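Input record, target 12 of the design panel.
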């Protein structure tokens, strides 16, 4: 129907209401959010720059925003995408104790370069890609 002109797109996901596009620009990354009902060639996205640091990937499901900050070894979760758009801190940080703890570790409740995320409504699946090559499952309850 039409083409969106996006610099450096890498992956996309959608919750049926919004379209999320990950972009990679050098060592940085951005998360672009488009409202699906308003999509047209001239659509301007909402940008969530703070959600990503260094390398990473974002994933949108059921109005939740999940980001895997690969080089910080964290998965960040916003229960409401609008909260992330407003620049609020994540509701949940997996893999580390807080936003400043960025040490990659292999162990219980630790991550070592998370890169792949999927959410099925009950479980968040996270794929570590460095050394451990693990697939981790986190319950939302």
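The sequence produced for target 12 reads:
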């Amino acid at each position: 129907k039409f083409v969106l002109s996006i610099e450096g797109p890498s992956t996309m996901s959608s919750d049926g209401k919004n379209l999320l596009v990950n972009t990679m620009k050098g060592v940085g990354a951005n998360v672009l959010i488009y409202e699906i009902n308003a999509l047209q060639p001239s659509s301007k996205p909402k940008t969530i720059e703070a959600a990503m640091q260094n390398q990473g990937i974002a994933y949108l499901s059921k109005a939740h925003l999940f980001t895997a900050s690969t080089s910080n070894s964290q998965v960040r979760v916003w229960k409401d995408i609008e909260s992330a758009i407003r620049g609020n801190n994540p509701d949940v940080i997996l893999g580390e104790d807080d936003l400043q703890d960025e040490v990659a570790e292999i162990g219980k409740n630790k991550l070592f370069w998370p890169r792949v995320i999927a959410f099925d409504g009950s479980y968040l699946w996270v794929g570590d890609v460095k050394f451990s090559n693990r697939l981790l499952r986190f319950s939302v309850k």
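Residues 81-85 form the longest helix (5 residues).
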